[in-house]
Design goal:
Number of helices: 7
Distance between the termini: 45 Å
Strand order of the largest sheet: 5-4-1-6-8-7-9
Largest sheet: 7 strands, mixed
Structural class: alpha/beta
Radius of gyration: 15 Å
Shape: globular
Number of strands: 9
Mean pLDDT: 89
Order of helices and strands: EEEHEHEHEHEEHHEH
Length: 195
């Protein structure tokens, strides 16, 4: 059983998507306030841990400069973020994996610290973020001990991070419905405002 004193976090930036809503552009390389969004988010993660990974399925040479390690999906054709989370848990050197999606460019260290503190209160279960009634399942903390459960669910055909996480006992970091740091940038228009 993990305790708060023994928790060590690895961080995973999820940047392995196909960019289908961005005309195939690599979302992690979208410009945000003068730099690729992955560069800024990786720097934020680096304030919290010395083990920053990026899940990517292309442009590895670029992503390598912003991470300690890269992970990639086992399956071809961009099977979705749960594949990145599975790869991250396999590579996790800490007791817990903090995952952050690259399409939340306003996530900051203070928000992530709140999530990590909440996770440490119940270290044996995942900790999810909810704003109002809206879940944000890619911004989460997962104990590494859940790797076998996630592997089994994946092999059984599970592809939804939220469905898998909600089937586990879980803790919740509850935030206001209009939390601006959870802005989700999915369309070209979302990115062009701050490019």
């Amino acid at each position: 059983m993990a305790t708060a004193n023994t928790i060590r976090f690895s961080a995973l930036l999820l940047a392995g998507g196909q960019g289908s809503r961005l005309a195939g552009k690599d979302k992690g390389l979208m410009p945000w306030r003068g730099q690729p969004v992955a560069a800024g988010l990786s720097a934020t993660l680096g304030q919290l841990t010395d083990d920053v990974m990026i899940s990517c399925n292309r442009n590895e040479a670029i992503y390598r400069q912003w991470s300690d390690r890269l992970v990639a999906d086992d399956a071809p054709d961009y099977p979705g973020p749960l594949a990145g989370m599975l790869a991250g848990l396999r590579a996790c050197r800490g007791t817990h994996l903090l995952t952050v999606p690259c399409d939340m460019p306003l996530v900051d260290a203070d928000l992530l610290k709140c999530l990590l503190i909440q996770a440490q209160e119940q270290p044996d279960i995942p900790c999810l973020v909810r704003a109002g009634e809206q879940w944000h399942p890619l911004l989460t903390v997962i104990p590494r001990t859940l790797l076998p459960a996630l592997q089994s669910a994946w092999e059984d055909g599970q592809r939804s991070p939220l469905r898998w996480l909600l089937r586990q006992p879980h803790a919740v970091l509850q935030l206001p419905a209009e939390e601006p740091r959870l802005h989700n940038a999915n369309t070209l228009a979302d990115w062009s405002v701050h490019s």
